[in-house]
Amino acid sequence: MNSNYINEIHCIVHSNKTTLIKKTMKYAVVTIEWLAQHGLLAIPTMRKSKDGSKVILHEEYLSPYRDEEFPRYYFDSPELNALLSGDEWSWTEEEQPEGSAEFIQMAAAQNLLNVTRAGIQTMSLTDNEALKVKSMYPYWNEFISKSLTTGMKVQYNDKLYRVRQNIAVVLENQPPSINTAALYEEINETAAGTKDDPIPYNNNMALEEGKYYSQDGVIYKCTRSTGQAVYNSLKDLVGIYVEVAA
What is the model's pLDDT at position 44? Predict the structure, then answer.
């Protein structure tokens, strides 16, 4: 058989295969906020909307999240072409983003950081997880003369606090401390509360009967639940709520 004819057949087969792959490829639209919530980073190679709030990803990139709903489009479909040529996704020559690839990558990282910080209060992180990303939470002094709502987390003096009740106006002279324990609760790393893994006591904590707590190198066992936060040192609560562990 003529070699040119064979090559022509191979080209046709390859071309048809490539066309088929392209037609079956799907793309999905997700928001930058969604990426942040799933620990993913928007990189320069991703097609972004003009306002930077959305990206288009190949569907395979989202394979671990198949159960979630995304707008999906076939490659070269009229719907995808219409989306990309619309005002939300296309730039005029004057609107094209400027800067090196490194700058664009840093700008994307900065945008992701801002979005993460803006949405972190709505994330369902455990206390231990929140402590590991403590720097992402806002500082308490950013809310002076503003309001805080129950459950929000803020940084103060290199510690992380949870707001215990709605605060209509945050006062400058009432920062998180033992004196404002009714308003703020310090978040500490969770321990098992056993003798081998006692809970570090921070003078602003409710004690639970049967659990072990440590302070100043001494381990105490709670003999009676306090029902609410107590502020005394554990040594002063011996015989009332705790006993020194044997």
Answer: 67
What global pTM score does this model have? 0.54
The tens digit of pLDDT for each residue in 132-147 reads 999 999 999 999 999 9
The backbone region for 16, taken as left when phi is positive above 0, alpha when psi lies in -120 to 50, beta otherwise, is alpha
Tokens of 211: 């659990």
